[in-house]
Amino acid sequence: MPKLKTKSSAKKRFCFTATGKVKMASTGKRHNMRKRPQDMLRDTRGMKLLHPSDAKRVSDYYFHV
């Protein structure tokens, strides 16, 4: 049986910390920025950590477990 490839979509959207937590980019920053409040734009800077239940799903998808 051939090796399974890592999902390219997961590679592009998520990365892992050294302790195994899953990081993701903040949502809601692609377009229509002028409609968004400034405090929302400030809050969505940088990377966020996924909730552990979602992180398990992502890591299973990422590593084909």
Secondary structure tally, helices: 3
Strand count: 3
CATH class: Few Secondary Structures
| CA-based gyration radius | 15 Å
Uncertain segments of ≥5 residues (pLDDT<50)? none
Task: Count the domains.
Answer: 1
Helix content: 25-40%
Alpha-carbon distance between the termini? 16 Å
Mean pLDDT: 87
Q: What name does the CATH topology carry?
A: Factor Xa Inhibitor
Report the major sheet.
3 strands, antiparallel
Query: What is the N-to-C order of secondary-structure elements (H for helix, E for strand)?
Result: HEEHEH
The class by helix and strand makeup works out as: alpha+beta
Q: What share of the residues does DSSP label as strand, in percent?
A: 15-25%
CATH architecture: Irregular
Strand order in the largest sheet: 1-2-3
Indicate the overall shape.
elongated
Write the layout of secondary structure elements.
Layout: H1 8-13, E1 14-16, E2 22-25, H2 38-43, E3 47-49, H3 52-63
Antiparallel strand pairs: 1-2, 2-3
Give a short summary of the structure.
This protein has 65 residues and is an alpha+beta fold.
